[in-house]
Amino acid sequence: PLTLEARGEFWAPTTHQVAALSAQEELDLGDLTLTAGDNFLGRVVDPSGKPLAGAKVGLEESGSSMMRGSTVNRKAVSDEAGYFRIGGLPTGKYRVQARSAGYVAAELDPLIIPGTGREIEATLAVSKGREVSGTVVDTDGRAVAGAWVSPPMRFDSLGLNFGSDEEREND
Predict the structure, then answer these.
(1) What pTM was computed for the model?
(2) What confidence tens digit (pLDDT) does each residue in 76-85 have?
């Protein structure tokens, strides 16, 4: 079988399964009805409460992972006033993260979307990151040009994370 998905901005997606078509075969699906999805309106602020422009916001189903995947995965970027909008969300539980260079990501999990065609609002406040300094040297004590220092990297479905799960929980 073949699964087709119909979607539109600010509409909840719908799927339709059809039998595999043979070469040159045509199939009229008729009307595929979309229902209004909920809209998530948010604002990203810095630790002092000031709007944070250019923050990357990711939304996926709560409990999803790279192995299991997520059928809903949306992204947005906050505007000059820190606002963003993610529309067309079907009923469900979601995890939202806001990231910006120099800050620890803000996370909201779970975000409950009731599927009533309304707007859900939240503010995501990032926190100040930590700073380290120093010089990378070789065994003779000479500076190593082009060297860098970073915590271990790992990926999740919302993007790149630095550090261990324990370090993220303590941030």
Answers:
(1) 0.65
(2) 999 999 999 9
